[in-house]
Amino acid sequence: MPITILLADDHAMVRRGLHVFLSTQPDMEVVGEASNGQEALEQAEQLHPDVVLMDLHMPVLDGIETARRLRAILPGIRIIVLTSFSDQDHVVPAVRAGVKGYLLKDIEPEDLAVAIRNVHAGQVELHPAAAGQLMHVLASSELSMNEAHVHANPHTSTRLPEQERVGLGKETSHGPDMLTRREREVLGLIAQGLSNKEIAIKLIITEKTVKTHVSHLLDKLGLADRTQAALHAVRNGWVV
């Protein structure tokens, strides 16, 4: 069965280009198009697509509110944002609204196809710039929580007890010591929102080597993708 996709963008040329490209993918089928958020809701209810690929800035109903309502009426639907904006004011509300992918419109066509497949399979796909914004927000939130704890209990340590820290749970066995020095460097740069290409330039290694390090650290940490790795690292205080 092909992955069924609903496109939502107020620019007809964007929808046409996406439709033409996605139609070349043997495992994908574009089942509908919408020019605004309200149309996207109506078509999603009627067509029940696997994935909604949509812009954030649309008339009648914007992408954030559309995502919230889609998740309310179709909890199993996968939503991918394809936009030109990677700032915190767009990324964070979109993720909170339930989107599983946040991509920028400069993405290569083949990378978009891979992202759609990954999101359909249950993974999260974030552009490095979007991931960087989430890391910043999460790190700031963790710091605020620690400071509030210390203010209320001035004689305690500046770090929260392990069992109280957000996102740690029972994952203490997957600590940073199990990673090599280079893998820790790569993980830190992932958490800063750098792409594989940017990490390769920064560390003066090949992009293929970066991909190998990413694959190894994901296996060691028992995580599915680089976004989970970045969140895991920040939540556990491994990187700043």
TrEMBL record:
InterPro entries: CheY-like_superfamily, NreC/VraR/RcsB-like_REC, Sig_transdc_resp-reg_C-effctor, Sig_transdc_resp-reg_receiver, Tscrpt_reg_LuxR_C, WalR-like
Matching PANTHER family: TWO-COMPONENT RESPONSE REGULATOR
Alphabetized Pfam families for the sequence: GerE (PF00196), Response_reg (PF00072)
The protein, known as: Response regulator transcription factor
Keyword GTP-binding: no
SUPFAM superfamilies, per database record: C-terminal effector domain of the bipartite response regulators (SSF46894), CheY-like (SSF52172)
Native species: Paenibacillus taichungensis
PTM-bearing positions, type 4-aspartylphosphate: 55
Classification via PROSITE patterns: HTH_LUXR_1, HTH_LUXR_2, RESPONSE_REGULATORY
Record domain Response regulatory: where: 4-120
